[in-house]
Write a structure and sequence with these properties.
Blueprint lengths: L20 H4 L13 H8 L6 H12 L7 H8 L2 H29 L4 H9 L1 H37 L15 H17 L8 H23 L24 H8 L2 H9 L6 H30 L16 H37 L7 H25 L3 H29 L8 H32 L3
Length: about 450
């Protein structure tokens, strides 16, 4: 682990109850030029303090987040409930497989973070590509978070402010661009500047509760719907066979917890691959129920007319939904600085590697560079969020990158790990594992290519 970032939530005991910030604060800590020797690190820390049950809780909450707002629209794009559930179930097999592969490679390489595992097992080029992908992914997710803030504030303001019906009479302080900007400058930017973000673990507990509350509200609103909410049309099959693939970015974005899974695995009291397999299976099944409940109930409530952000489909004056919107805003306000920190740490690691300077030698310039990185990151994400009002367009791009973290890099790690084994005769199981790795890389590359091409030629040019 990099010495420069080792003081951020380095105590694994923080992970047991910090459902969001505790683990995400250190999930992407990019190593500097030289890392602490793993043997010395192990002797100093000993075994982790997280139980198997605690690991299940952490993985579930690493997977769950604001991405669940897009699941009803994903079911609509997939062609209905049956197609959406079938697609999730098929992908879940490989999602769990990727998590197990990462634990196996982490144990074999004695590395503690996702990108360190890729560096150690696959080499320099895949390692750099992995870190760049993480930086782009966190950048895109920050844009999505700002769009979500704008969506929820629009509805909350509409409920609080009575506007005249005449055209052009809207007040300046209710303008979406103003509300997003003022929230970002007053709340998000100050939280993003500090070098350490461990203090946010208290607020993150509320954001986790909020995520579960949103799911509960959507399910309850489907069981006891408002009389004025009538679905326009409920598709029962996809319009074309390729339409199913349009839901893949949302599913990948929702279930992507692989980057944070390696530190969670190493924080366990007994970091064993077999135990980890049971942990991630239980966690992904729980996440599946939450996402399926949100997706099915939200889709059946509004049909093909469901918005990309499902909460936007509900009336502004619905009090339980208004509370859900407030919780989502809180979730995003605490998550943006964490994701920004992760992306900034990766960029810092790449810079230190490129210049060949250690963290200790660059302390004076680090503060200046951190401020420049933070302000540049913040202003770029804010500018893009102001002019890309549709969260679906952002998810269609970053969902393809999520597929790389779920399928491509774990598949490459498995292939390299098996090829590095010295065996006189290679058993059928060896060939089966290499074939599985090749299939994962192929599947991930297909999803990334298809979703990225669709995002560029359909969504972004629309």
């Amino acid at each position: 682990m990099a010495q420069g970032f080792g003081n951020i939530n380095s105590d694994y005991k923080d992970w047991e109850w910090s459902a969001d910030a505790g683990e995400r604060a250190r999930l992407l800590q990019s190593p500097s030029v030289e890392t602490v020797p793993k043997s010395g690190e192990s002797e100093g820390n000993g075994l982790g303090a997280t139980s198997a049950l605690g690991a299940v809780f952490i993985v579930v909450n690493a997977a769950l987040g604001a991405g669940l707002l897009n699941f009803p629209a994903a079911f609509s794009m997939a062609g209905g409930v049956a197609a959406g559930i079938a697609l999730q179930m098929c992908m879940l097999i490989f999602i769990i497989g990727g998590l197990v592969i990462l634990a196996y490679c982490s144990q074999a390489s004695n590395e503690r973070t996702y990108q360190e595992v890729v560096w150690a097992v696959c080499g320099k080029v895949p390692g750099v590509l992995c870190e760049v992908a993480i930086a782009v992914y966190t950048f895109g997710t920050c844009i999505a978070f700002l769009i979500i803030i704008g969506d929820q504030e629009d509805k909350i303001i509409a409920a609080l402010v009575t506007e005249p019906k005449e055209a052009g009479s809207s007040r300046w302080y209710t303008d979406r661009k103003f509300t997003i900007s003022i929230t970002a400058f007053l709340l998000i930017l100050p939280l993003s500047i500090p070098k350490e973000i461990g203090f946010q673990k208290y607020a993150s507990s509320l954001s986790v509760i909020g995520t579960w509350y949103v799911t509960a509200v959507i399910i309850i609103k489907y069981i006891w719907p408002n009389k004025e909410l009538v679905p326009v049309e409920i598709p029962t099959s996809p319009s074309t066979w390729t339409a199913v693939f349009n839901a893949m970015p949302t599913i990948c974005f929702g279930f992507q917890c692989h980057v944070s899974s390696v530190p969670v695995f190493n924080s366990m009291k007994q970091p064993e691959v077999k135990t980890w397999g049971a942990v991630v299976t239980a966690a992904m099944v729980i996440a599946l129920f939450v996402y399926t409940g949100t997706g099915v109930c939200g889709f059946l409530t509004f049909g093909a007319g469901v918005e990309q952000d499902v909460l936007m489909s509900y009336p502004s004056n619905d009090i339980p939904v208004a509370l859900a919107r407030a919780f989502i805003i809180l979730c995003v306000l605490t998550s943006y600085p964490i994701l920004h920190f992760c992306g900034r740490a990766v960029l810092e690691g790449l810079w230190l590697r490129y210049t060949g300077v250690t963290v200790e030698e660059d302390v004076v310039r680090e503060r200046r560079r951190r401020l420049l990185q933070t302000i540049s990151w913040f202003l770029l994400t804010l500018l893009l969020a102001l002019f890309i009002p549709d969260i679906g367009k952002v998810i269609s791009v970053i969902g393809g990158l999520a597929a790389c973290f779920i399928f491509v890099f774990p598949g490459l790690c498995l292939i390299q790990a098996k090829l590095s084994e010295i065996q006189e005769t290679r058993a059928i199981s060896w060939w089966a594992q290499v074939s599985y790795g090749v299939f994962m890389v192929t599947l991930g590359a297909f999803i990334f290519g298809q979703t990225t091409a669709n995002a560029i030629f359909v969504d972004l040019t629309a």
